Write a sequence for this structure.
């Protein structure tokens, strides 16, 4: 089993330390429980991923939905999705369930 395959079977939930605000087709994430507030702007693909994170879907299910929604190759979607999920995890916006 590859490292990517193991990551693809994980599920994540959003943490309560971030608030969201939709702006046109993007989402702004605001870290609310920290002295030094942080904001992140998610492009349409990032916003779609954010909306799909529900604690129930595996990362590979989100990948498949992104492939269908944005007509990109599964390999590109997988690589970019894993990198994005790791960024969200490092920022504290999501946590494994």
């Amino acid at each position: 089993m590859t490292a990517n395959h193991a990551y693809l079977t994980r599920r994540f939930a959003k943490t309560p330390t971030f608030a969201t605000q939709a702006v046109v087709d993007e989402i702004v994430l605001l870290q609310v429980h920290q002295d030094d507030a942080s904001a992140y702007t998610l492009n349409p693909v990032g916003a779609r991923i954010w909306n799909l994170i529900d604690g129930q879907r595996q990362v590979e299910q989100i990948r498949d939905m992104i492939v269908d929604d944005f007509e990109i190759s599964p390999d590109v979607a997988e690589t970019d999705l894993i990198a994005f999920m790791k960024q969200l995890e490092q920022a504290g916006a999501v946590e494994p369930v």
DSSP finds four helices and five strands in the chain. The chain has one domain: 3-91.
